[in-house]
Design a protein that fits this description.
alpha+beta, 4 domains, five-stranded mixed beta sheet, 20 helices, about 15% strand
């Protein structure tokens, strides 16, 4: 989320650079009255460009990203980091033209609200409204465009500060943002009516009135509560924070405190009937029965419905034991060829490209980790790649290195989920449009280990197609500790808590000793929580990024404000890579980020190995 937010800051500042006349009219005052007064004063000018203009109409208030006033006409421009792949503003509507494209609706409603406030405050101005988005049809014509922005904390809020010296050296190149007229879509929003006959403007006034008198707006409980941002832990409640999630459910259904210890129906993996169950009075997983899931018990692997019922039954029976299809696993594993290869990628896709020739949100593969298991059972961290060179496009170097690692034999290759296959498809298309002398060779090799996605005009299924270990988890394995999740971050600790074999093995300092590691030395992966029973999630055992760097080395504002304490998931990895692109010349910082990335990615491919080891041990015993 931090990385996405900072990408939004970047897009916002880039948009301002397209309107240089507003450079001295950036309303940075946080106080309402001051900001409103400054904006009003600027709007008395015949022609003016204003950034972050503050407008109040009655009890409604907005901060407009960009206002461009010429005489009695004014452009309201709302800037979003959302990608746009269409040709014009008709893309805001679905193909029928009778409804809005749902992916753009929230942004259009934002502009619709701002337009209403601006017109109300200045009825004599003719308002034209726009959305400015990241244009996926454009390509960067200069290198390092992303790096001209540095995130700083100014007056208590984060902002992207522009490096004007860098702009003078390289320029901005062709525009990467597209400005689209939103008036037609806004009129559509104004004319819509909900099931109660209320329109958009009616709801605005209702919300504003409720806010003004501090009256809670009743929201019916439903499956959308799964992602409620107002949940609070017991420790947070003890500190005085309110639990909005529980408040809603207690108000609507009179639930007791004990009820919130039960899993809700929307906690069921890949389940689409939660709302119907809630309407029928079935709120918890324990309220469901086998009749709610129609599946064929004779199926050779777990289907979605069967797996869902398995999760339900474990809850109903209070059964903490895992499900493991030994026969199915053995049949699958017997078809694989040694040596076994386990690979994991770290990637990035940012709104403003790092490199010339790239489009907004075009994929970058900057790192991989590669573990091998031989037919004799030897495990080793066989290879890795991390491109941390500032301003260097990594994808083609990445795939050359990966090819070199994997073409030494024809052993089975494993990935976890679809990510690696998708990114190799991205690189395939990039190679297709490149002038690389070995592009045809690399493209043909990519086809041998992947399956084509919808982005390619050619269809293929490689003869050495990577095996999806996540798909094997879904078919053959389930543990209640995962709570239905198939993320490797949940599956690994569940397996470690279950497997006495892995506990004994990795409770010793053998990793980076007897087992070859490129980044760890005598690492012990088994540590216990305070209860002395539960295994700590290995991702929580990764070192803090800057723990060995003196604070005086982190005195630059943008380092302190953008830094991350740990790299323990994909979001942390892409944030760390982004930081490397900004920290040219900060050797200690770069080294710390590199080390954190290498250890995190190695653990990802090691996690796959551990899952394999557990299954193999259960089969053989």
């Amino acid at each position: 989320m931090q990385s996405l937010a900072e990408g939004g800051f970047h897009v916002g500042e880039l948009a301002k650079l397209y309107f240089p006349d507003g450079a001295n009219n950036d309303i940075d005052a946080l106080d309402y009255e001051t900001a409103i007064s400054q904006t009003k004063e600027l709007l008395t000018q015949e022609n003016v460009v204003i950034f972050e203009g503050a407008i109040r109409f009655k009890n409604l208030f907005i901060r407009a990203d960009i206002l461009v006033k010429k005489g009695d006409k004014i452009q309201l421009i709302e800037v979003k980091a959302k990608s746009f792949g269409g040709q014009d503003n008709t893309f805001f509507f679905n193909s029928s033209g009778n409804s809005l494209n749902s992916s753009y609706r929230p942004y259009l409603e934002d502009v619709a609200f701002q337009k209403y406030v601006l017109k109300g405050a200045f009825p004599n101005l003719q308002v034209t409204s726009y959305l400015m988005l990241a244009n996926k049809n454009s390509t960067a014509t200069v290198d390092g465009l992303n790096q001209i922005f540095k995130i700083q904390n100014i007056k208590g809020r984060k902002k992207a500060v522009v490096d004007y010296n860098r702009i003078q050296k390289q320029g901005l190149g062709d525009k990467l943002l597209i400005q689209l007229n939103a008036d037609q879509a806004i009129e559509f929003i104004y004319e819509e009516r909900n099931e109660n006959g209320k329109g958009f403007l009616d709801e605005i006034l209702e919300y504003a009135s409720s806010y003004e008198v501090d009256q809670k707006i009743f929201t019916p409980v439903s499956a959308h509560c799964k992602t409620c941002e107002f949940r609070a832990t017991e420790s947070e409640v003890a500190l005085g924070k309110k639990n909005g999630f529980e408040e809603c459910w207690k108000t609507s259904l009179h639930l007791q405190d004990s009820d919130f210890k039960k899993p809700f129906v929307f906690d069921l993996w890949n389940y689409r009937s939660s709302n119907k169950n809630i309407e029928d009075g079935s709120y918890f997983i324990e309220d469901l029965s086998e009749q709610d899931f129609e599946y064929d018990p004779s199926e050779s692997t777990l289907s979605t419905k069967h797996r869902q019922w398995l999760q339900v039954k474990k809850v109903i029976d209070n059964d903490p034991t895992p499900y493991l299809d030994i026969q199915g696993l053995q049949e699958a594993m017997d078809s694989f060829k040694y040596p076994l290869h386990f690979i994991d990628f770290e990637t990035s896709a940012v709104a403003i490209p790092f490199f010339k020739g790239m489009r907004p949100y075009e994929g970058i593969a900057f790192q991989y980790s590669h573990h091998v298991i031989t037919s004799e059972g030897e495990i080793k961290h066989a290879g890795q790649y991390l491109n941390s060179t500032v301003g260097e496009f990594p994808n083609f170097h990445f795939v050359r290195s990966l090819k070199k690692e994997l073409e030494q034999d024809d052993g089975t290759i494993f990935r976890y989920a679809t990510h690696e296959n998708s990114y190799l498809n991205v690189i395939y298309l990039q190679l297709e449009q490149s002038q690389e002398t070995d592009r045809l060779e690399l493209m043909e090799w990519i086809k041998t280990i992947t399956k084509s996605t919808g982005t390619s005009l050619v269809e293929w299924t490689g003869e050495r197609l990577m095996v999806d270990l996540c798909d094997m988890v879904k078919k053959y394995y389930y543990h209640p500790l995962t709570n239905g999740s198939n993320s490797i971050k949940n599956v690994l600790p569940a397996i470690l808590n279950e497997s006495e074999y892995l506990k004994r093995k990795y409770n010793l300092p053998i990793y980076g000793n007897q087992i070859k590691s490129l980044n760890f030395l005598k690492k012990v992966w088994i540590e216990y929580e305070l209860d002395g029973i539960t295994i700590k999630n290995p991702y929580k055992l990764l070192p803090k990024v800057f723990e060995n760097i003196p604070i005086d080395k982190l005195t630059e504002d943008f380092l302190l404000d953008s830094s991350i304490s740990e790299v323990s998931d994909g979001g942390g990895a892409l944030t760390a890579y982004g930081m490397i692109q900004f920290t040219e010349g900060f050797i200690e910082v770069n080294d710390a980020l590199r080390s954190a990335l290498l250890k995190y990615c190695e653990l990802d491919s090691l996690a796959m190995v551990m899952i394999w080891e557990y299954w193999n041990h259960e089969i053989n015993k």
